[in-house]
Write a structure and sequence with these properties.
Blueprint (H helix, E strand, L loop, with lengths): L1 E10 L3 E2 L2 E2 H11 L6 E4 L2 E3 L5 E3 L10 E8 L1 H14 L4 E8 L5
Antiparallel strand pairs: 1-7, 1-8, 2-3, 4-7, 5-6
């Protein structure tokens, strides 16, 4: 099947209405009927502000970058992006065309 790879970049402790933003994204996707999504935590990274965030063994309050990833239809991608826009949640995102399927 042809679809869209949609990835959001954000910090792990970013919140939206007192909910972690990555959890909010996953819940919105599930409510739209999107069949799956994943969150991946980085060990280091920096964003447009140039601040380097790194994982250290003794740090308790991490603010590391995370990626929230979906493989979905172009229509679902548009719906999810519109929800994020309407929520006023400014997030960096990337879309790419993909081919996907399920092997028997």
């Amino acid at each position: 099947m042809k679809g869209t790879y949609l990835k959001f970049y954000l910090h792990e402790n970013r919140q939206h209405h007192h909910v972690l933003a990555y959890e909010w994204l996953l819940e919105q996707a599930r409510a739209l009927g999107i069949q799956g999504g994943s969150v991946f935590k980085s060990i280091a990274g920096y964003g447009r502000h140039g601040v380097l965030h790194e994982d250290h063994f003794f740090e308790l309050g991490n603010d590391l970058p995370v990626e929230v990833v979906f493989v979905l239809s172009p229509e679902q991608s548009g719906q999810l992006l519109n929800l994020v826009r309407e929520a006023g949640l400014p997030l960096l995102y990337v879309t790419m065309p993909v081919e996907y399927g399920i092997l028997p």
